[in-house]
Amino acid sequence: MYSLIKLNYNTAKGDMMSDLITELEREHKTLLETLQNVRTLGITSKEGKTMFLSAKNAFLAHLKKEDERLYPPMIKASESNIGLRNMLDTFASNMDEISSNALDFFNKYSIENASGLEFARDFGSLFATLGSRIRKEELKLHKEFDKLHS
Description:
- This protein has 150 residues and is mainly α.
- It has one domain (36-148).
- The protein has four helices and two strands; from the N terminus they run ββαααα.
- α1 (19-41) packs antiparallel against α2 (46-78) and α3 runs antiparallel to α4 (116-148).
- The longest helix has 33 residues, at 46-78.
- The protein is elongated and about 50 Å long.
């Protein structure tokens, strides 16, 4: 059966990846780079604030894409795969907390001027949490998705 999910060869990782996974991983990289630029520019600078709002919008669009395109086929496959179901449950419960914290962060600094120290503390926590989540997604969840479509 022909899969509608296109595959491409990722030479850096040495394996086949679907176009969706390639796209999601590119978005991960862009989001983290944008957040790094915000840290460098400072949230109080005009350019930093613009990049910050861009990161917020990119984060929300990325979550929507995952909800619409990544998770539905995995949830369907998990109906007959208890290991996948357990992994998805773990990722979902973890993501609920991360998303809530990230949205609180984005909302707080979208409307407030913050002290440099407060922003740095909150930013460091969020950046570390997102970085860890992204690594786990790319190492586990994305590989499982591609297994389903290989």
